[in-house]
Amino acid sequence: MCAIKNKDSTVIFLVVLLLWIFFVGCATTPTSAPVMESSGDAEFARLLESIRVKGDLPAVFGAVIINGEIYLTAAVGTRKIGTENWVTVDDKFLIGSCGKAFSATLAGILVEEGLLEWHTTLKDVFPDIIMLPEYELITLEQLLSHRAGLHKNFIADLDENRPTTPEGGRLQYVEQIVKTKLNNPPGQFMHYSNAGYVIAGAMMEKITGQTFEDLLSEKVYNPLKIADAGWTAPAELEPDTQPWGHVVELGSYKAVRKDHNYWLDPAGGNSMTIRGWVKFILQNMYVDPTNRQDIISRITKNRLHTPPNTVPWKYNNQYFKIWEKLIGWRLTSANYALGWYDIKTKDGEKVLYHGGATKSFIADVYVSPSYGSGILLATNARTSHIPLYEGAKRINTNYSLKISLP
């Protein structure tokens, strides 16, 4: 990590804070939104409404898990800024990189089925692709734990004369990225990379002969009865009955219908309702209600929740320091497992966390697997994570969830 002088970091902190206040605080959102029968649990909806107003967000979707069970779900706000087209608890939203936990779980299922191993290498799966030698021994586990040495993002130049399906795009992505120099040798650092999940998705497709999207539906969504999940931005197909995403332009929210490139789905392109998302999060609890059907074994669950080693973070990004100043969360106390950040708390409790951001949505999830507690929040705007983080703290206190948030 590069050192930052105190004066410089203070200036950067103040500048970013002022920009956040201006661009997010000045965005135009409804001052109040109704709590209706379709909003979900009324008391919880009113709490979400106060979180939405304070954070100046178009809409907020939320869920609370207690003792390994769905306790509360609700949604409040507008589907599209400037309208009274109110969201419902059955509306969909994009969860961004929170979807990495789904992708890692799918990989775990394929490992349990004997189709892959955690130490299956890139060369094992793609023996015919010419790649730099440093890529050949990169393993599935390294890709899913951000230890492959990849850059955070890689922009592929897709050939439009080849299949432009999501799986076709992912194959081209692999063919191109393996010819570029790594950020560092595999296994030396934890360096967050969306590229690693795209490659892992392509590996799963090659081994099974199925698309990543179909695999996730078959192995995860269908067994958990998550019938509302998809991959498109909700308003792209249903602009009148689903939430639009929003971006901030010149201090105001602008509604947008489309969002991400679908060949990036394994890195977090999932779209679903809050109830659908919470059904998956229940799979990550160590509390075992008798009515829950587990799709992975306890051994695999522990593998997904445990960082494979203690290699240091590598982030030469001064804004991580700003994040620590804003919310007091020392990122050095966290490590990355497979699809989850594993947070070390003062009292020794394991807290699983992930944040997600697409072009026009934000999501956050906090889980205490031992207590069986969880908080899920999302908004249909690409803003700062801070309003959702502050909202999570209020929910944690209000419902005595015992999740050790910083």
The beta-strand count equals 11
Output the radius of gyration: 21 Å
Strand content: 15-25%
Average residue pLDDT: 88
Sheet of most strands:
7 strands, antiparallel
CATH class of the largest domain: Alpha Beta
Descriptive terms for the model:
Beta-lactamase, 34% helix, 7-stranded antiparallel sheet, disordered N terminus, 2 domains, two-stranded antiparallel ribbon, alpha+beta, globular, 406 residues, single chain
Question: Which secondary structure elements does this structure contain, and how are they paired or packed?
Answer:
Blueprint: H1 6-25, H2 42-55, E1 59-66, E2 69-77, E3 92-94, H3 100-112, H4 122-125, H5 133-136, H6 140-144, H7 166-177, H8 194-208, H9 212-221, H10 234-237, E4 245-249, E5 252-256, E6 271-273, H11 274-281, H12 298-305, H13 318-327, E7 334-336, E8 341-344, E9 350-357, E10 362-368, E11 373-379, H14 386-398
Antiparallel strand pairs: 1-2, 1-11, 3-6, 4-5, 7-8, 8-9, 9-10, 10-11
Helix pairs in contact: 1-13, 2-14, 3-8, 3-9, 7-8
Written description of the protein model:
The structure is a single chain. It is globular and about 60 Å long. Strand 9 and strand 10 form a beta hairpin. The model is unreliable at 1-26 (pLDDT under 50). It folds into 2 domains: 6-99 and 225-255 and 265-398, DD-peptidase/beta-lactamase superfamily (Beta-lactamase), CATH 3.40.710; 103-217, Beta-lactamase, CATH 3.40.710.10. The chain is 34% helix and 15% strand. The strands form 3 sheets. It has a 7-stranded antiparallel sheet with strand order 2-1-11-10-9-8-7, sandwiched between helices. A two-stranded antiparallel ribbon has the order 3-6. It has 14 helices and 11 strands.
